[in-house]
Amino acid sequence: MQTLKLEVLRKELPTTCQILAVSKLQAAEKIRELWSQGQVRFAENYVQEALEKQEQLRDLKIEWHFIGRLQKNKVKLVVGNFELIHSVDSFELAKAINEAAQKLGKRQKILIQLNLAQEQSKGGLPSEELPEVLNQIKALNNIQVIGLMTMPPLFENAEDSRPYFIQLRSLLEQQKINFPSLQILSMGTSSDFRVAAESGSTLVRLGTILFGERIK
Known about the structure:
Elements lengths: L5 H7 L5 E5 L5 H8 L5 E4 L2 H10 L6 E4 L8 H4 L5 E5 L2 H14 L3 E7 L15 H8 L5 E8 L11 H15 L7 E3 L6 H6 L4 E4 L1 H4 L5
Parallel strand pairs: 1-2, 1-8, 2-3, 3-4, 4-5, 5-6, 6-7
């Protein structure tokens, strides 16, 4: 996949859609270089790798996001160290995040991840369970749900992702009536971000198209 300059990518996106630079398995120097070009939002998948980079780059004002699958035994390492957790897919995980945030005296922002294609290999809540889980989370005082996230199947033709993006946008609009804090649609990656942006994404997760190939 050809890399594109940050300024080129920004011009392609509507003003309502922001870039989240996915820096997993990328060197800290590459993050520093992209930050110098004005990119402030970075996302990591692996807790230990992310914490090491945060230490290396603590002189920079970075908004860190966690987008990987989160196990409950890693929650205390994530809460408070990331502005936003994208991958909350159960009430049990939300409850663990709430407890960790309460101990820190913080309110952790989260997204609910939905598995719209019901792929076994991916995390995410089935769409029909979303209203119930949102209602359960409403009682938790130390987390705030601010949107939804999804990862559709990987298609050769990016256009095939569009129905999943439209479905996520529709789910958000339905739930915003009772949960006005739902504003973020985290959807779209390097392979389909243009279609995601056209479908209402407010946050596209771009990795290789920004950084190049990852460290093996």
